[in-house]
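Quick one: structure for this chain?
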Amino acid sequence: MKILIITYNTGKGIAEIIKKANASHHEIIVAAAEKQEITAPPPAIKIGSKADRLIHRTLGYISDSYHLHSIRATSTLLDRIAEVRPDIIHIYTLDGDYLNLPMLAYVLMRYKIPTLLTLSNPADIYQTRKALIKRESYNRKLFNKILSDWELLHIAFENREMTCHELTDPHPGYIIGPADPASSYLEIYETI
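Got it. Here's what it folds into:
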């Protein structure tokens, strides 16, 4: 099985998932905005540039519109997804300013690729505490609509309390075991 992991930066968690997946004969391709962990291999797909992220961060801060910028970076990522043709896509982190989530969701829905989204707190998708102009109500409605329309979306939670959030209602949810998260993810990949 070919799995594409989309993340802001490579870290220990990604390295563990790669190790476990390779042992189970799965192919892992990592798309990341930054490389962080020395032990993790460099990402096969680079998402955007520092300039893209700076513009995204600035616009998001001013107008409470995180996950709505980085059109060029997301478009390039989508081109690479079409080339790679993964069986599953795992959006490992939404933290950071590197993806246009509505654009990504729309195209993945059209491609009909099963997608796993890991969320520590679903409210972080639409809520930016530091934004100058607060648009929480608009953002909640927008992302609620996007996620509810995404048929092949599966959601992984880092803790059980977050499983009852309004954004996650129509989708299969999984709890990531804190003792061995990489094994939990591998089980989810095989279930999807």
